[in-house]
Amino acid sequence: MSDLSRDLVARIREVIGDPKGVIPLHEPTFAGEEWALVKDCLDKGWVSSGGKYVDRLEAETADLCGASHAIAVVTGTAALHVALLLAGVEPGDEVLVQSLTFVATANAVNYARAIPHFVDADRLTLGLDPDALAAYLTLIADRDGERVINRRTGRRIAAVVPMHTFGHPVDVDGLARVAAEYEIPVVEDAAEALGSTFRGRPCGSFGRIGTLSFNGNKIVTTGGGGMILTEDEDLARFGKHLTTTAKLPHRWAFVHDRVGFNYRLPNLNAALGCAQLAQLPRFLAAKRALAARYQEAFHDVAGLTFFTEPEGACSNYWLNTILINEEHADERDALLEAANDAGLMCRPAWEPMHRLPMYANCPRAPLPVTEELARRIISVPSSASLGEA
Ligand SMILES: *Cc1c(COP(=O)(O)O)cnc(C)c1O
User: Which residues, other chains included, contact 280 with Cβ-Cβ below 8 Å and sequence gap of 6+?
Assistant: First the structure.
């Protein structure tokens, strides 16, 4: 084992102690009313499309995220799919997305029959870099009335999707400036950033539409689920319609006025979510305490740097990240092997989207920082329970 591998394993152990078994990257905590609320659904027979918990989860999430409207759906991916449609993305359009993201972001663009157009990340946030985006748009974007056209492909650029990587907010102000200059709608992929804020404002509230994920590995889980957030009442009404098979309200008739989606979150999942959401303040405190311990443990390790939240941000530290210094980046796989051999579930960043076979031929900006970060990122065990120990 190399010195660097030994340091990585020793410092993680210093933070999390020596619990038994393999330490997961991120596991949920069920310490609230989960059993009671799920049992209530079963007792009343409201497990699916009826019941009060969907409305309650929507209202509580909207409140927490500073949005006027929230629509609960079956996955974060489904939330993104519908959010793109609500933003006006049409078949054949291009949508600007980070290459450094989970595959769902690019897949959702594809489900909308649009084309992901990859842009670079920022070393200070790990998310979309507004300055690089602005410089790139100067080169490739033409205005045609209200539309922005990629002059290299002739296609419309219909939206930009920033993603708050591992819960760390992107440079929201910078992005808002670029998006406003070109009048490109922002669809915010806040799947990882529930509870994170930027200059006091919650992630999920910055774009025309924001989306969350309640997958099992996220900070709050419904088993599987997602949420669409917006200020716009008309978009919210249309979003609810699209995600509930576009059925027209009627006492008994089944009439649908367009091709909708069966994306409604079941009541059973929403009940779990209500119990989880009530614990978010506790989870946030535990995760920030854990991050502070990682920061302390790694502050004097040569070759490894703990990634801290960007300036102006209060991050949920969904996943804690160690950056391997550039000169050791070729040791990444050996470090991952050593940590996983030691029972510590550590993971690299996602393979960047522009290198996946289905997206390799999509348009893209220069991606030097994405390439660099993909070599340098290691995510380390980050469950809230570790911060409470
Ligand atoms: C988790 C996640 C999603 C949505 O995932 P689902 O499993 O569909 O809920 C979308 N984007 C990012 C960046 C994510 O991490």
Answer: 64, 194, 195, 219, 220
User: What's the first-to-final CA gap in the chain, in angstroms?
Assistant: 29
**pLDDT tens digits, residue range 315-356?**
999 999 999 999 999 999 999 999 999 999 999 999 999 999
DSSP string, 284-296: HHHHHHHHHHHHH
- Going by alpha carbons, the residue nearest to atom 14 of ligand 1 is 191
Of all protein residues, the one whose alpha carbon is nearest to atom 13 of ligand 1 is 102
Ligand 1 atom nearest the C-alpha of 77 is: 8
- Name the one residue in this structure whose structure tokens are 């999430």: 61
Of 7, 183, 187, 3, which Cα lies nearest the Cα of 101? 187
Positive or negative, the CA dihedral 60, 75, 353, 308 is positive
Write the single-letter amino acid at 197: T
CB of residue 116 inside a 6 A radius of ligand 1: no
Token code pair at residue 86: 């609500």
What residue's CA is closest to ligand 1, atom 9? Answer: 76
Q: CA–CA separation, 110 vs 316, rounded Å?
A: 29
Query: pTM of the predicted model, to two decimals?
Result: 0.97
pLDDT digits (tens, 9 = 90+) for 72-115: 999 999 999 999 999 999 999 999 999 999 999 999 999 999 99
- The encoded tokens of residue 14 equal 């210093």
